[in-house]
Amino acid sequence: MTKIASSFLFFIFISSLKASTHIQPNALVLPVTRDYATSQYVTLIHQRTPIVPIKLTLDLSGQFLWINCDEGYVSSSYHPVHCNTKQCSLTGSKSCRNCFLSEPGCNMNTCNLFPNNIFTRTNQIGEVALDVVAIHSTDGSKLGKIVTINNFLFTCGRTNLLKGLASGVKGMAGFGKSNISLPSLFASAFNFKTKFAICLSSSKTSSGVLFFGDGPYVFLPGIDVSKFLMFTPLIENPDNSAGPIFHGRPAAEYFIGVKSIRIDEKQISLNTSLLSIGDEGEGGTKVSTLNPYTIMETSIYNDFVDAFAKELEDVPKVKPVKPFKLCFNLQNLGVTRVGPAVPTIDFVLQNKDVFWRMFGANSMVQVSYGVYCLAFVDGGVEVTTSIVIGGHQLEDNLLQFDLHNSRLGFSSSLLSRQTTCANFNFTSST
Ligand SMILES: *[C@@H]1O[C@H](CO)[C@@H](O)[C@H](O)[C@H]1NC(C)=O
Ligand SMILES: *[C@@H]1O[C@H](CO)[C@@H](O)[C@H](O)[C@H]1NC(C)=O
Ligand SMILES: *[C@@H]1O[C@H](CO)[C@@H](O)[C@H](O)[C@H]1NC(C)=O
Question: By its UniProt entry, which PANTHER family does this protein fall under (predicted)?
């Protein structure tokens, strides 16, 4: 690329940071579905000129959006981000590179980051770039007009980084704590506060929903879930455990301060020193969409399973199905509106009145016809994080990550509110 061309592009970048639209939405919305083969949560954005749908695996720990630029990337609105530009410094990139092919992912004098595939724990160098992204706005209850952002920042990955991701996926959507995560970029494009909400569906046929921006978050039949949220502070972790390359930098992941666990409202005894975060980022509790089930450090897991079993000591058990330790026939448990009738589990937060309650729909999982197991797994003694709250425990709960106020809003099971995460009205009026 000639010097004149690159300084011309630089001019375009800085003059069009803002969205190219007349309407200023307060919130945006995307669908999210579970890929059953991989247990990954997959969303769909629209990008490029001409615009095409791009499937992405959701990564709550990811710092930015990365998309494969190797294969089939055709767009007249693709612009590499050059070194020493405003966008490049926003990314915190320390890597400037020359690449000679002049095609998406490979240009001269470009700013580079390290896109990360958390499932295979691999990362590689990738060109930072800008392209058009289009997304539905929302008033919180239905789809609104599509809005377009001309220069939406992402990083190019390569085809081999897609290994281990759900079929058809072209990259990963980073929702982590970072000023270039998807939620941060949407918020700055439309001048709303950096808040987003995830509501993962347990339905195999209907998608859940991701909101960018503040509530209302309305689910059929007209229930505004933002009214039911309880809040707990998001806790800083001094060391990022998500990927080896980020060691020594603050975590992009979301940690909360679980102080104790109650089963059937009785506090269980466990080694609480494992629940706080150490100097090297070890211990504590985080929320993750990467694990299908909540993972606990071995001693916590054993105390937890024993206490849960004790509350159900009169109910006959069946042979456990790996990786679970405690399983029952549903007919011996009974069923309620919020799933199998089992003791409630409370993750108690900043004080005894603030707790995240889990009912049978989130605590138990069906493993075969009529057989349900306690859906928590033993992470071993060597885990970095003591409790990692996983996908099954998040389903049909709305979680609002309010980065502006550094707090997590959580709804507990929407089933107890007569709705589900599959009940957002995605029917378009056009
Ligand atoms: C964004 O984050 C990077 C890396 O942490 C930092 O260097 C940069 O100053 C931040 N930019 C803004 C505008 O906050
Ligand atoms: C609790 O966990 C900490 C951290 O792993 C460990 O050093 C300590 O020995 C444990 N305490 C007990 C009573 O097991
Ligand atoms: C869903 O939203 C569409 C408009 O986007 C509206 O026409 C329709 O009535 C809504 N459905 C329900 C059940 O409210």
Answer: ASPARTYL PROTEASE-RELATED (PTHR47965), EUKARYOTIC ASPARTYL PROTEASE FAMILY PROTEIN (PTHR47965:SF103)
**Torsion angles phi and psi, residue 269, rounded to 5:** -90, 130
Residue nearest to atom 6 of ligand 1 (CA): 92
The alpha carbon of 12 and the centre of ligand 3 are apart by a number of angstroms equal to 39
Nearest atom in ligand 2 to the alpha carbon of residue 271 is: 1
- The number of the ligand 2 atom at minimal distance from the alpha carbon of 297 is 5
- For 217, the enclosing helix (H) or strand (E) is none
- Do 348 and 270 lie in a common domain? yes
Give how many domains the chain has, as a whole number. 2
**Six-digit token string for 217:** 């978050």
DSSP letters spanning 216-246: --EETTTEEGGGG-EEEEEE--SS--S-GGG
**CATH number of domain containing 68:** 2.40.70.10
> Which ligand has the minimum distance to the alpha carbon of residue 141?
3
Which of 264 and 430 is assigned the larger pLDDT? 264
Report whether 253 contacts 61 (CB < 8 A): yes
Is 50 exceeded by the pLDDT of residue 6?
no
One domain, residues 348 and 395:
yes
Q: Cβ contacts of residue 210 below 8 Å, gap of 6+?
A: 29, 30, 31, 32, 43, 58, 196, 197, 198, 199
> What pLDDT digit, counting tens, does each position of 72-113 carry?
999 999 999 999 999 999 999 989 999 999 999 999 999 999
pLDDT confidence of residue 15: 32
Cβ neighbour number for residue 399 with a 10 Å cutoff: 21
- What's the N-to-C CA distance of the chain in angstroms? 42
Residue keyed to tokens 């994080």 = 385
Same domain for 164 and 246? no
Tell whether pTM > 0.85: yes
User: Which DSSP string corresponds to 346-368?
Assistant: EEE-SSTT-EEEE-HHHHEEEEE
Q: Which domain holds residue 376?
A: 225-428
